[in-house]
Amino acid sequence: MAISIEQVKELREVTGAGVLDCRKTLEQVDGDLKKAIEILREKGLAKAAKREERETSEGVLDLYSHGNGRIGVMVELNCETDFVARSPVFRELAHEIALQVAAAAPLYVYPDDIPEEVLQQERQSARQLGIDEGKPEAIIDRIVEGRLEKFRDETCLLRQTYVRDDSITIQDLLNQYIASTGEKIVVGRFVRWEVGETA
Does domain 58-109+156-194 have CATH number 3.30.413.10? Predict the structure, then answer.
């Protein structure tokens, strides 16, 4: 099947992969865009895993103001080299992550950042809710684990659904940029302020 330039361009826009990777993947799946996206995302994950041990000492801070100044966000995004840190693509990613923090109000970057006492509190709350709803004891543990996973999805930035594309998470978005830049990229930290909130 002949692959058109438009198909390659569309796949490249969605995944951030190189032109040759896009063309080869589309040829491999006979032009099926959904399958091609899935394959390239998996490759992005593989590439991201290989870069896990690299140091990320460069990066940028992105400042974002939302809702006529009612919400302010600062995000630190890190990468391996100054060359990538200064690129418009990297700065665009930092801005997208700041926008995500403003819109979705995560509390943590990674699931491992959640303090054990917070998880314990969530466990107790979920268990009590299961008991109050009259659920059988045999399934309460599964209910608790399911609710903990949902809590992690809602409160951890990298596990949140991307506000601009609900088919991917922020980790998927990060992996797309890792695949396209060839560098390890990590969210160093973020802070979110909202007018009227107390510390």
Answer: no
Q: Which fold has domain 5-50?
A: Helicase, Ruva Protein; domain 3 (1.10.8)
Question: 29, 3 in Cβ contact below 8 A?
Answer: no
Cα dihedral value 11, 59, 186, 148, nearest 10: -110
Helices (H), the chain: 5-15, 19-28, 33-50, 82-85, 88-104, 116-132, 137-155, 170-181
22-36, 51-65, 79-93, 113-127 — which is least confidently predicted?
A: 51-65
Interacting residues of 174 by C-beta distance below 8 A, sequence separation 6+? 48, 93, 158, 185, 186, 187
Give the pTM. 0.69
Tokens of 100: 């995500």
